[in-house]
Amino acid sequence: MAKRNNENLKISDVLKEFVDTNKLQKGLDKVNVQDAWKSLMGNGVNNYTTSVHLERETLYIQLSSSVLREELSYGKDKIIAMLNEALGKAVIKKIVLR
């Protein structure tokens, strides 16, 4: 039978320990990046976004509009800064627009 711990712990601390123990942070970052992209870019960009994928520290964005891809390529540094700020940590170092 498992030993019971009688300490009172915050749920946030327990969840953080669970994520760290099971090495789930990379998967959570992938989901959080997709949500941040949708919320920060708005409907205009999301209508032309077909795929958002985080691989290591590179964010791959697939767009169906070449005009929008060219327009977003001018502001890559600003997009990286906005997404990292929304995530609360530096997850993204590079963006590749396809």
How would you portray this structure in words?
- This protein has 98 residues and is α+β, with helices and mostly antiparallel strands.
- The chain has a single domain, classed as GMP Synthetase, Chain A, domain 3 (2-Layer Sandwich), CATH 3.30.300.
- The chain is 54% helix and 17% strand.
- It contains four helices and three strands, in the order ααββααβ.
- It has helices at 11-21, 25-46, 66-73, 76-87; strands at residues 49-55, 58-63, 94-97.
- The protein has a three-stranded mixed beta sheet with strand order 1-2-3, covered by helices on one side.
- A hairpin with a 2-residue loop joins strand 1 and strand 2 (58-63).
- The longest helix is centred in the middle third of the chain and has 22 residues, at 25-46.
- The radius of gyration is 18 Å and the shape is elongated.
- The termini are far apart.
- The model has no long low-confidence stretch (mean pLDDT 88).
Q: Which value, in Å, is the CA radius of gyration? A: 18 Å
Order of the strands making up the biggest sheet: 1-2-3
User: How much helix, percentage-wise, in residues?
Assistant: 40-55%
Quaternary state of this entry equals single chain
Shape: elongated
What is CATH's topology name? GMP Synthetase, Chain A, domain 3
Overall pLDDT: 88
CATH class: Alpha Beta
Q: What's the architecture, going by CATH?
A: 2-Layer Sandwich
| Strand residue percentage | 15-25%
- The end-to-end distance, rounded to whole angstroms, is 53 Å
Question: What's the SSE pattern?
Answer: HHEEHHE
Runs in which pLDDT lies below 50 for 5 or more consecutive residues are: none
Number of helices: 4
Count of folded domains: 1
According to DSSP, the number of beta strands is: 3
